[in-house]
């Protein structure tokens, strides 16, 4: 006797991709831009998905959209299915690119942008393994020259990059920053948080203070931007950091605080003189991502 059991519905990857986009962006409009659809089309996709699983997947309020407990479960499985699809397709689309890429990056780039870049690269180049080293820009460049790294991102000034003929991928204003409602900037000498000699942020910051004859003392030294943030949040020091890092209790300081303006900094690319195909693929990905 034939079975009368209804087959389980098939979850379309396109619907799951929209589900993940909504969860990652927190609203339908941003998700719509991410998946190249209209907000109304995204809403219809969510309704279709909810009909398929018979559960409500999102809680909505005036400010944001958050997954329900059922939405979280589907989101977890959806991410796995999408990753499996990318891996499967990548094995056919880019089967000839394989190997190991030894990549270096400074701490701030590693925290803010590198995870997403590596995730996207892994999705499109499943046969390439990337080994990452986090260190100071000067050390990373030396490692590329010595052959210990294949490629690195490093912080520098736009002027130095132009003089060296370096390949600049990104530039952003460097600013003085401190704790919201903090008073560290009022102290004399002003306490600052920087890293050791060779750091381009340090060089520009100290030169700017000397230029306006503002007394300072190095109160906190950290090679990691997380350490600098800790010093600023505790109101122990102010620090030169990228403008985009002024968030979560850290605010930009300026002339009204008796501090000089800082110039842009650049994130440049250094690559071995004899790159493999895998290294060239990683370099191209970094260029596209930036």
Question: What topology does this entry show?
Answer:
Blueprint: H1 13-25, H2 28-35, H3 39-53, E1 58-60, E2 65-67, H4 69-93, E3 99-105, H5 107-112, H6 114-124, E4 128-134, H7 137-146, E5 151-156, H8 158-164, E6 167-179, E7 190-194, H9 200-211, E8 216-221, H10 225-233, E9 239-242, E10 250-253, E11 264-271, H11 277-289
Parallel strand pairs: 3-4, 3-5, 7-8
Antiparallel strand pairs: 1-2, 5-11, 6-9, 6-10, 6-11
Helix pairs in contact: 1-2, 1-3, 1-4, 2-3
Q: Main beta sheet, described?
A: 7 strands, mixed
The Cα radius of gyration reads 24 Å
CATH topology of the largest domain: D-Maltodextrin-Binding Protein, domain 2
Chain-averaged pLDDT: 85
Q: Give the ordered list of helices and strands.
A: HHHEEHEHHEHEHEEHEHEEEH
User: What is the distance, rounded to the nearest whole angstrom, between the alpha carbons of the first and last residues?
Assistant: 61 Å
Strand pairing plus helix content: what structural class? alpha/beta
The residue fraction in helices comes out at: 40-55%
Number of strands: 11
Would you state the CATH class of the largest domain?
Answer: Alpha Beta
Query: Uncertain runs with pLDDT below 50, 5 residues or more?
Result: none
Instruction: Please state the second-level CATH architecture of the largest domain.
Output: 3-Layer(aba) Sandwich
Please indicate the count of domains. 3
Q: Work out the helix count.
A: 11
Give the CATH superfamily of the largest domain: Periplasmic binding protein-like II
Percent strand equals 15-25%
Overall geometric form: flat
């Amino acid at each position: 006797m034939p079975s009368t059991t209804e087959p389980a519905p098939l979850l379309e990857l396109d619907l799951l991709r929209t589900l993940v986009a909504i969860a990652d962006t927190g609203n339908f409009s941003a998700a719509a831009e991410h998946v190249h659809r209209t907000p109304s089309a995204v809403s219809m996709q969510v309704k279709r998905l909810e009909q398929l699983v018979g559960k409500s997947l999102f809680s909505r309020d005036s400010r944001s959209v958050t997954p329900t407990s059922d939405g979280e479960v589907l989101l977890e499985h959806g991410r796995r299915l999408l990753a499996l699809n990318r891996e499967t397709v990548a094995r056919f689309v880019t089967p000839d690119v394989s190997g190991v890429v030894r990549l270096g990056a400074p701490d701030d780039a590693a925290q803010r942008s590198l995870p997403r870049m590596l995730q996207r690269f892994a999705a499109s180049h499943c046969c390439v393994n990337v080994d990452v080293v986090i260190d100071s820009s000067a050390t990373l460049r030396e490692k590329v020259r010595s052959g210990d790294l294949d490629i690195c991102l490093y912080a520098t000034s736009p002027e130095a990059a132009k003089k060296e003929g370096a390949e600049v991928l990104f530039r952003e204003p460097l600013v003085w920053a401190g704790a919201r409602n903090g008073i560290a900037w009022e102290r004399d000498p002003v306490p600052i948080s920087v890293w050791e000699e060779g750091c381009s942020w340090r060089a520009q910051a100290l030169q700017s203070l000397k230029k306006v004859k503002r007394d300072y003392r190095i109160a906190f030294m950290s090679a990691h931007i997380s350490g600098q943030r800790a010093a600023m949040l505790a109101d122990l020091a102010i620090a030169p950091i990228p403008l985009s890092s002024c968030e979560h209790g850290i605010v930009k300081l300026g002339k009204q605080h008796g501090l000089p303006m800082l110039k842009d900094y650049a994130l440049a690319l250094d690559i071995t003189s004899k790159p493999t195909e895998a290294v060239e693929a990683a370099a191209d990905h970094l260029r596209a991502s930036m």
